[in-house]
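Continuing the batch. This is chain 6 of the set; chains 1 through 5 are on the previous pages. Same settings as before, nothing changed between runs. Recording input and output for traceability.
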Amino acid sequence: MDTLFVALRVILSLAAVLGLLWYAQRRLTRGKSRSKAAEVVKVVGRQGIGLKASVVVVDVDGKRFLLGVTEHAVNVLHSDDVPALDITTTAEVTSESPAKSFANTLAEVTDISGAATAPTAPLRPRKHQPSVQASGSILSPSTWKQTAAALRQIR
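Output for chain 6:
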């Protein structure tokens, strides 16, 4: 009978500690925005052209860039305004395979005649976003870092 009371006390204590951790996590993240911010860089498509090289089409602030990406460098091959999609183009893209739609997008963007004189715009780096997989769980390292930071502020 004593063992049963000890087990119940342990379970109740564990539930209380987990409840306090959950409450502290909710309280600390109350002011932070939980909505996903608009992406600064949108990757339209990527095509590998070698073992460690690829061509990437990205949209940044209304501009479309064709980037050559290797293991050691990223080069702007061409830049242009983002083409407006009309309804017929959207219907065609949805009925095509992803590889064909990427090939069509790549064909639209890759006019190399103006590549040498194309202006290069600096790309803004994407802000670090924490992993969503275990975010907010007791197993997440970021939860323990937040708890330690909160305890340091209290002292």
